[in-house]
Design brief:
The protein contains four helices and no strands. The chain is mostly helical. 0% of the residues are buried.
Length: 115
C-alpha cells in the first residue's frame, strides 16, 4: 500500500469505513445523544421559567406581608396611645397614683472588687 492510499484510508470519514449495521448503530446512537441533549436543554429552560414564576409569587407574598406589618404597626400605635390607655384605665376604675403611693428607693452602686 503506497502513501496516498494509506493517507486516504486514515482520513476518509468514519461512516465510510464502517459496515452497514455498524453505520446504522452509530447513526442511531448519535441521534439518541442529540435527542438527550435537546431534552436536557428544554428541561433546563422549563426549570428556569418555573423558578421565575415561583420568584414572582414570593415577591408578591413579601409585599403583602410588608403591608400587613405596616398595618399592624399602625394598629399597635393606636392601641398604645397614652390618651387611650388613660381613658380605658379610668373606665375600669383605676386612678393615677397619689404622691403618698409612690416610694423612692435610693440607688446604691454595687461594690467593685479590687484585682
Amino acid at each position: 500500500m503506497n502513501y496516498p492510499q494509506r493517507f486516504y484510508r486514515l482520513t476518509r470519514p468514519l461512516a465510510a469505513r464502517l459496515s452497514q449495521p455498524k453505520r446504522l448503530a452509530l447513526m442511531v446512537g448519535l441521534a439518541a445523544l442529540v435527542a438527550m441533549m435537546a431534552m436536557a436543554i428544554v428541561h433546563r429552560r422549563q426549570r428556569i421559567v418555573h423558578l421565575g414564576y415561583e420568584l414572582s409569587q414570593l415577591v408578591k407574598e413579601r409585599e403583602t406581608l410588608a403591608e400587613d406589618v405596616r398595618g399592624l404597626q399602625v394598629e399597635r400605635a393606636v392601641l398604645a396611645a397614652p390618651d387611650r390607655v388613660r381613658r380605658l384605665a379610668l373606665e375600669l376604675g383605676m386612678q393615677p397614683p397619689q404622691a403618698t403611693d409612690v416610694t423612692s428607693v435610693p440607688y446604691v452602686a454595687p461594690a467593685t472588687e479590687a484585682p
